[in-house]
Amino acid sequence: MAQSFGASRWQAFARIYAWAALPEILAGVRLGGIRAVKGVVIGQLLVSIVGFGALFKLYGSRFLMEHFWAALLVLFALAFLLAEGLAWLERRVEYFAASRG
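Above: the chain's sequence. Below: its structure in token form.
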């Protein structure tokens, strides 16, 4: 249909296909972001001297549980905000993919 209205291939891709695929792309980015946060913390637990993983190791080894849980809650809040922000964006562009059937 885009070609019948005179759109080039690039215009059809940029204005139709990309918008139609955006909800699935954002769903993948959202799930990947959540797993990336988990992977970074696990990696930092094993090899890092800075970051959340190092804080968890330090607080756990010194039995500073209130600090441990505070850092964990901050990390959960950041991951939750990232996931919810991407979910909100996903809902905003869902309209463009609704007519695909």
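The CA atoms of residues 57 and 63 lie 10 Å apart.
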